[in-house]
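Fold this complex.
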Amino acid sequence: MSAIAEDQLAAAPAQHGGSRPWRKLRANRSALFGFCIVVFFVVIALLAPILPIDDPIATSWSAVRKAPTLAHPMGTDEIGRDIFSRMIWGARASLIAGVISVLLAVALGVPFGLVAGYFGGWLDQVISRATDALLAMPFLILAVALAAFLGPSLTNAMIAIGLSAMPIFIRLTRGQVLSVKTEDYVEGARAVGLNDFSILLRYILPNVFAPVLVQATLTIATAIILEAALSFLGLGQQPPSPSWGSMLNVAKNFLTQAPWMAWWPGAAIFLVVLGFNLLGDGLRDALDPREI
Amino acid sequence: MLTYIIRRLAIAVPTLILVSIFVFTLQKLLPGDPALILAGEDRDPAAIEFVREKYHLNEPIALQYTYWVQGVVQGDMGVSLRSGQPVLKLIADKLPVTIQLAIMALIIAFSIGVPMGILSAVKKGTMLDYAANVVALSGLSIPNFWLGIMLILLVSVNLGWLPASGYESIFVDPLRSLETMIMPAFVLGTSLAATLMRHTRSAMLGVLKADYVRTARAKGLREKVVILKHAFRNALLPVVTLSALLFGELLGGAVLTEQIFTIPGFGKLIVDAVFTRDYAVVQGVVLCAAAGVILINLVADVLYFVVNPRMRSTL
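Structure:
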């Protein structure tokens, strides 16, 4: 993919406005495609309350498990709810869970990584070993265990996903800090007498921004799948609130009678995750000066 | 050699201890009196007293941890509140099932991911490379529980080729066992195949630029020999090492796959335990999974060190 992006870059006119990474990103067709998918889902999630769609939790016993029709473009589920409107409301749960859990992981992981990388010594040892320990526990198993002990709810699923994703950001930030902390401008700032906090904030943190942004975008993709997985297992969004994962959980019991119940939620998860992955890959190509 | 192993162990042991502290702390997340919750729904006073005694809940927390770890080290991870069986026995019973699933998934992942990675590196920049990347990215983006459901719908419900669920031990009826496991293994292998493809591609791209590959070509060797014998052999090492890191992902993926295809393995054990509030089992599974990951990584690191003489200069 990077090769294609490279070709397109060479062909792109150089007089485009904006900074170099931004130009690179816009010239990358697959990243742009990913961006459009993400924007599409964000917009429908935001507009859900004002769109002219059925109530996502209103049941109708006269319309149980009906195949897609004009009135119900995606069909109805096992208790006659309109799947189309549940899909739109489900986008909210997925996106909110994806974004908030990653924000949590970044908000916890970056400071730990900064401290570990900058101060080194025993502090680094402790943080790094704790990171190793968290990484040793498989992502989903850890999230399932946390959700089990915290109790099943969307909020707890987000906490579980955020905590499971945190070590990635600790490690990433730490590595980044280690590579810039010996740079001349950091030495200079120290020589001038700036305190550690100011140096971290003003000279080191900006260097961490780009890789964290790339990783965060890619982790949102993982987090959305994880939220869907936890909801699929019954440990995330609780009924009757719509969520793509819990819709799939119910759908698997009606595969022979109402297969459409299983089509849409999975396709939506796939699309939105693909969008974030494409966007993340594009961001990496645009922000990373090295060629992969 | 020995120094390296000792140095690696010096990292693995504290990591394992931290994991155990973390797993122990999990039960402190439970709201309310842990004895009441751990005793289950019966709320039998005798059971509550038993739990309180068993987990030393009246002692300070550090002491509780010490007791717990002492038990774990001796193979006592507590007793399942549902079945009354020791947690370790439950896990040992389920483990072979998951291992079979994981091995089959790895075989599928390697046989798809590695050739695709080689091909796309050799044909870098062509439509084939582009298509392989699209397939890989799709493989990474597709939720495997949905892929599983769709496969059941197509292969089992519509075509009736394979059973949608059920499990047979490979030692009892090998053919039937493969038949029930092939679809779950494919589902579990898909995302791994995608990761493997991407890593094989980048490892191959690095190697193809190397001088000895140019030399091999200059000698007039056939392209097939250059790629498979000279380039691929050297690209394989990092790829194999990486697959050790995929072990954790494999275990996590097994949780969902086993749930969909109702395979009585490690992953189904933890999910069932979550719903029956069998917390000792949940803790046991997390601890065993993490220990497995740490062990496999340790072995992979040591093997990498053994087969790669260049690493020795880093000592």
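The CA atoms of residues 186 and 220 of chain A lie 32 Å apart.
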